[in-house]
Design goal:
single chain; 351 residues; alpha/beta; binds iron/sulfur cluster
């Protein structure tokens, strides 16, 4: 991978939200580390799948990338330019290259606006993006491009099905001719039968327009279908990343293993080892994350390891002390582009 291939890069990106108590003085009592030192890169014409449970920080990361939230720390580079170094006008022009497709096509479209108004909305902000043929022609072409009837331009969102509404959301995102789409759970609100159609549309658009996607999802099976590379997040941090084949075929983090084992398969006996790894409990609060490895309170592997009598988890099960005391860094696995943040990644891959 050369630098020229990378269209979007984040380095050590963090977003902490202060938590305050008190009516008058509002004393800060802590902070929620929604995103905590994330580094990622997205390559031209490729899809990076970002997966993790609800509360892992995926959506906050997307908000940082489109400028809805300001980072506490770290840098965002779009096509090699550091967004924080730019003036307002340059930043807006650069951010035009990043558009978002939202999760819920029912709530992300204004019910009082016609489809034509919704799709053409961005032209009011980015007047220079209106093509020579004019706004109305551009809107009709966009509807056609995403598989909708251009003659329905004056209809309202409630007159469309869920899948068609998501196509409207995609047309809206494409209006200003971005090079990068941030797709935040774009199919999770849709029926399974419709999900495939929307994914196919996104793949077609990527091939035709050379788009790059950051595809956020909690469903690993959806990500596997579309992603070239995968990053797995847990409590605001990336715990594993790499090419999709590496992460899916040789997962190095016990969390990734557990997420993968929960993906429904037609015949569970055809899984690698025929078992599902059940993660106990909910993801801990980012206001008070567990010390050491954030995952140690739920890790299925730690109690199985030699030396696991060194320390105890809150549930009383013995685990290696290092899991409770040292935060594991992302380290290369068999392939140098595949990384996992687990002190015992080799054991996770074997079991
Ligand atoms: Fe589990 Fe320890 Fe690895 Fe964390 S470092 S994932 S607790 S084995």
């Amino acid at each position: 991978m050369t630098d020229a291939d990378v269209v979007l890069e984040v380095r050590d990106l963090a977003k902490y939200y202060p938590v305050r108590r008190g009516i008058v003085l509002k004393r800060q009592i802590g902070e929620v580390k929604a995103v905590d030192g994330v580094s990622l890169s997205l390559r031209k014409g490729k899809t990076l799948g970002l997966v993790g449970e609800s509360g892992s920080g995926k959506s906050t990361l997307a908000k940082l990338l489109v400028g809805v939230e300001k980072p506490t720390r770290g840098q965002i580079f779009v096509e090699g330019r550091d967004v924080s170094d730019l003036g307002r006008a340059d930043r807006r022009a650069l951010r035009r290259n990043i558009q978002m497709v939202f999760q819920d096509p029912y709530t992300s479209l204004n019910p009082r606006m016609s489809v034509g108004e919704i799709v053409g909305e961005s032209f009011a902000i980015h007047a220079d993006a209106v093509p020579a043929g004019g706004k109305d022609k551009a809107v009709r072409e966009l509807l056609d491009r995403v598989g909708l009837n251009p003659d329905h331009v004056n209809r309202y969102p409630h007159q469309f099905s869920g899948g068609q509404r998501q196509r409207i959301g995609i047309a809206r995102a494409l209006a200003v001719r971005p090079r990068i789409l941030l797709c935040d759970e774009p199919v999770s609100a849709l029926d399974v039968s419709i999900q495939g159609q929307v994914i196919n549309l996104l793949e077609e658009l990527q091939d035709d327009l050379g788009l790059s996607y950051l595809f956020i999802a909690h469903d690993l099976s959806v990500v596997r279908h579309i992603a070239d590379e995968v990053a797995v997040m847990y409590l605001g941090r990336v715990v594993e990343n790499g090419a999709d084949t590496e992460v899916y075929d040789r997962p190095g983090h016990p969390y990734t293993r557990a997420l993968m084992s929960a993906v429904p398969v037609p015949d569970p006996t055809l899984r690698d080892d025929g078992r599902e790894i059940v993660l106990e409990g909910d993801i801990p609060s980012p206001l008070d994350p567990p010390p050491g490895c954030h995952f140690h309170t739920r890790c299925w592997l730690a109690p199985l390891l030699e030396g696991s009598a060194d320390a105890e988890r809150p549930d009383g099960r013995p685990i290696p002390a290092v899991c409770r005391t040292d935060s594991p860094k992302l380290v290369p696995q068999e392939s140098p582009d595949h990384h996992a943040a687990c002190h015992f990644a080799a054991d996770a891959a074997r079991r």
